[in-house]
């Protein structure tokens, strides 16, 4: 009887060991909403975010990224004009980083895409971009267009009811800035909590 109990115990131990090993060997998965927050290195394999897109610029005209951003490094951020904290803080930070880079306002383009097209008209996005006293490309579009571009960049965005917010809703969205080189390829992110030195280093790499 004692031998049988010992065999059962050792069997359970073996099963637990196999299960633990399987967990260690299983590749980590990143949901689309988390992809923009995942750390990425320039040229990292398997990273294929971005791609050509068409939205509406502040002047009401179509903005074709393949033409307007050709050969230009850029930082793209998804947010909305009624955002109380993350969006203005992020755009102001990008403006400050570009100034500290010391290469002028053409060093890299700052692209702001609204994830609230129902409220953010081209005029509203344009006026919002002017608040930061630096060239910022403000873009909006139809709901379908915005969702497609957000999907291309693996950026999470969702409308959420909020009685205290204007019109009774707010928009949750990814807070990372995505960086693209002159060839239009994704090279990394700047996270919301990232300190200035590594952020500047990443910007130097895409503008070199």
UniProtKB/TrEMBL annotation:
List the GO molecular function terms: metal ion binding
Q: Which UniProt keywords apply?
A: Copper, Disulfide bond, Metal-binding
Report which superkingdom the organism of origin falls in.
Bacteria
Checking CDD domains in the record gives:
SCO
| Alphabetized InterPro entries for the sequence | SCO1/SenC, Thioredoxin-like_sf, Thioredoxin_domain
Family annotation (Gene3D superfamilies): Glutaredoxin
What the entry lists under PROSITE patterns is as follows: THIOREDOXIN_2
All disulfide bonds of the chain are: 83-87
Binding residues for Cu cation: 83, 87, 173
Keyword Disulfide bond in annotation? yes
Domain named Thioredoxin: which ranges? 44-208
Q: Which residues form a coiled coil?
A: none
Concerning its family, UniProt says: Belongs to the SCO1/2 family.
**What is the recorded name of this protein?**
Cytochrome oxidase biogenesis protein Sco1/SenC/PrrC, thiol-disulfide reductase involved in Cu(I) insertion into CoxII Cu(A) center
Species, as recorded: uncultured Sphingomonas sp
Q: What is the lineage of its organism?
A: Bacteria, Pseudomonadati, Pseudomonadota, Alphaproteobacteria, Sphingomonadales
């Amino acid at each position: 009887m004692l031998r049988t109990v010992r065999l059962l115990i050792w069997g359970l131990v073996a099963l637990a060991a196999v299960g633990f090993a399987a967990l260690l060997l299983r590749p980590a998965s990143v949901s689309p909403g988390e992809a923009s927050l995942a750390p990425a290195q320039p040229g990292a394999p398997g990273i294929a975010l971005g791609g050509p897109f068409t939205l509406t610029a502040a002047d009401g005209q179509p903005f074709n990224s393949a033409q307007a951003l050709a050969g230009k490094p850029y930082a793209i951020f998804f947010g909305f004009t009624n955002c109380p904290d993350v969006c203005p803080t992020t755009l102001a930070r990008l403006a400050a980083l570009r100034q500290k880079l010391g290469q002028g306002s053409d060093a890299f383009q700052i692209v702001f895409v609204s994830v609230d097209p129902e409220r953010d008209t081209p005029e509203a996005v344009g006026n919002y971009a002017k608040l930061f006293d630096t060239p910022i490309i403000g873009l909006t579009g139809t709901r379908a267009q915005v969702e497609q571009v957000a999907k291309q960049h693996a950026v999470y965005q969702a409308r959420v009811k909020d009685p205290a917010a204007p019109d009774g809703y707010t928009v949750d969205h990814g807070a990372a800035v995505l960086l693209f080189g002159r060839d239009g390829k994704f090279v990394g992110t700047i996270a919301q909590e990232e300190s200035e030195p590594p952020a500047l280093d990443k910007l130097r790499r895409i503008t070199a």
